[in-house]
Amino acid sequence: MYRKLKELRKKKKLTTMDMAEKLEISKPFYCQLENQTRRLSYDMAVKIAGVFGMKPDSVFYHDHTNRENEEN
User: 3-71: CATH homologous superfamily?
Assistant: First the structure.
C-alpha cells in the first residue's frame, strides 16, 4: 500500500470517493491504485500529487524504494 498517499489523503480529510472525483476516475479504480492492485501510470501519479500540491516523487518515491529494498 502507498502509505504516504493514504496518510496525505486522510490528513486532508479526503475520502477515496473525494479522490476519485478529483481525479475523474471511479472509486474502485482509485482504491486499486492506493492498494497497489492496479499499476500506477506516471500521468496518474502526477494528477494525484497535484491534488496535494506536491511532486510525484514526494508522494510515491519513498514507498517504491522501501519495497525494492524489502524484495532484495
Answer: lambda repressor-like DNA-binding domains (1.10.260.40)
CA distances from 15 to 19, 45, 70 (A): 6, 18, 29
Query: What pTM value is reported for the model?
Result: 0.79
* 3 state SS for the chain: CCHHHHHHHHHCCCCHHHHHHHHCCCHHHHHHHHCCCCCCCHHHHHHHHHHCCCCHHHHHHHHHHHHHHHHC
Lookup: cell for 16:
477515496
pLDDT digits (tens, 9 = 90+) for 26-61: 999 999 999 999 999 999 999 999 999 999 998 887
**Does residue 2 register a pLDDT over 70?**
yes
